[in-house]
Design a protein that fits this description.
- The chain is an alpha+beta fold and about 250 residues long.
- Helices cover about 35% and strands about 25% of the residues.
- The protein is built from 7 helices and 8 strands, in the order αααβαββββααβββα.
- An 8-stranded mixed sheet has the order 2-6-5-3-1-8-7-4.
């Protein structure tokens, strides 16, 4: 898996005890400060940030493939992690089931909610909206790889998320319902036993007509790496020709 490997490869009981103690100290500190003063606010923000970072790391480790690997050193792990996250630098698509994607692109829903944080590299990045048919809550109906033009999906627009927040309580979740639009009785609603994150929409663009999806490869949860389709290549060549013409004037 993607778990960071210590020098001895396997964490011992002292390591586990240290992690447990650190977590307990963080909880104790958050409980000790006054909730309404500056220190209390800072503690809550720090605690939420820590939880978001840990959840993202856990998600990355859980989403790693099931291949059994021999323990390796730090450099090998870092090189492998870099290779497995390189897709974030290319064209990325986010799978959404109807009607949630439609609501996001229409501006009726301004916060997308998930049980994992938005990868930091995707903040501020334009992400294609890949719409699939309604299905079971929290379960993707798509395989890990789809060929170009697969009728199961369509690209309906693009979106940019400007920030990611962790909901610290049910009260905070309910107060933000006008933005995330998820009812309290929905299977996607906030629950005590799992974290919920809000991806805050910065901009969105809905296509006048849905487009066929290019080849898709699932990389992380609902995120897919997208190949460039012929329409995009043609558009890039056209823009390049215009720049060359302008340069010759």
């Amino acid at each position: 898996d993607l778990s960071p490997q210590p020098m001895a490869n396997v964490p011992d009981e002292h390591d586990k005890a240290a992690v447990a103690a650190a977590a307990a100290m963080g909880s104790a500190l958050a409980a000790a400060v006054q909730p309404d003063d500056a220190e209390g606010q800072a503690a809550r923000e720090a605690s939420a940030s820590f939880k978001a970072s840990m959840a993202e790391l856990d998600a990355l480790m859980q989403d790693s493939d099931d291949e059994v690997r021999e323990p390796c050193g730090l450099q090998e792990n870092l090189a492998r992690l870099e290779a497995e996250t390189a897709w974030q630098m290319g064209r990325v698509g986010l799978e959404t089931q109807a009607p949630w994607g439609q609501m996001l692109l229409a501006g009726a829903k301004t916060v997308e909610t998930r049980s994992y944080p938005l990868p930091e590299a995707l903040l501020g990045k334009e992400i294609a909206m890949i719409e699939s048919s309604p299905g079971s809550a929290g379960v993707s109906g798509l395989p890990k790889k789809l060929m170009a033009g697969d009728p199961a999906v369509k690209v309906t627009g693009s979106i940019v998320f400007g920030s990611c927040v962790a909901y610290p309580s049910l009260e905070a979740w309910l107060a933000d319902e006008p933005r995330h639009r998820v009812p309290a009785d929905s299977p996607y609603a906030w629950r005590e036993e799992r974290p919920i994150f809000g991806w805050v929409v910065e901009t969105q663009k809905e296509y006048s007509k849905p487009r066929q999806a290019p080849e898709l490869q699932r990389r992380y949860r609902s995120f897919f790496e997208m190949s460039r389709d012929a329409e995009e290549v043609e558009e890039e060549l056209s823009q390049l020709e215009k720049k060359m013409e302008q340069a010759l004037l």
